[in-house]
Specification:
mainly alpha, two-stranded antiparallel sheet, 3% strand, 187 residues
C-alpha cells in the first residue's frame, strides 16, 4: 500500500481495513458510550488515537512510572483479528473496542459465575452475605487483599444490609444483552 497511516487524517486512520464495525454489535449503546468515555480519558491529546505518549500521561496521572517496554507491550497487544503487519502509531477506538470485547468474552460465562455464587446461596435468593463472601475471597483460592474485597463488595450490587446481589452483578458483565441472546435462539 503506497499510502502510510501517517499521511491519513485521524478519521481515516480510525478505519483499519481489517477492523469490522461488527464489534459494535457485541455491546449495547450504553456500553459503547462507556468505552468511548474510557478511550477519551486515555487519549490525552484527543487526536482519536491512543499513543505511547497518551498511555504514559494517563499512567503517570495514576501514580505509575511506566517503563518503555510496558508501553510498547500495551500498544502492540492488538486484537487477534488485526494484521500482524499493522504498524499504526496508536490504537483507534474501534481497535480499543475490539480489544475490550476480546477480554470480556474471555471471562467465565455468566452461567459459571452464577453456579459458583449459588454454592454460597443456600436459600437461592440471588444474594450472598458480604461478610461470608469477603472471608472466602481473602482466605481461599486467589486470596484477594482486603482492599480488593472492599472494592468488589462495597459497590452498587450490595444493599444496606450487606447482601451482595450476585445475579445482577453477573448480568452486568454480559456482553450481549439478554434480549438479543433470546432473539438469536428464536425465542
Amino acid at each position: 500500500m503506497a499510502t502510510t497511516d501517517q499521511h491519513l487524517t485521524p478519521s481515516r486512520r480510525s478505519r483499519h481495513p481489517r477492523e469490522s464495525s461488527g464489534v459494535y454489535n457485541l455491546f449495547d449503546a450504553k456500553q459503547v458510550q462507556q468505552f468511548k468515555e474510557a478511550f477519551s480519558m486515555i487519549d490525552q491529546d484527543s487526536d482519536g488515537l491512543i499513543t505511547e505518549s497518551d498511555l504514559k500521561s494517563m499512567l503517570s496521572s495514576l501514580g505509575q512510572s511506566p517503563i518503555p517496554s510496558l508501553l510498547s507491550a500495551l500498544l502492540s497487544s492488538r486484537p487477534a483479528t488485526m494484521s500482524a503487519s499493522d504498524t499504526a502509531p496508536g490504537i483507534t477506538f474501534t481497535t480499543f473496542l475490539t480489544m475490550m470485547g476480546e477480554h470480556l468474552l474471555a471471562l467465565d460465562p455468566e452461567a459459571e459465575l452464577l453456579e459458583a455464587f449459588e454454592s454460597f446461596d443456600e436459600g437461592d435468593t440471588g444474594f450472598v452475605k458480604k461478610e461470608d463472601m469477603g472471608r472466602w475471597l481473602r482466605e481461599v483460592a486467589d486470596r484477594m487483599s482486603q482492599e480488593e474485597v472492599d472494592r468488589f463488595l462495597n459497590g452498587p450490587f450490595t444493599d444496606k444490609h450487606g447482601n451482595f446481589n450476585y445475579r445482577e452483578w453477573a448480568a452486568s458483565l454480559r456482553v450481549v444483552p439478554i434480549e438479543e441472546d433470546e432473539g438469536a435462539d428464536g425465542h
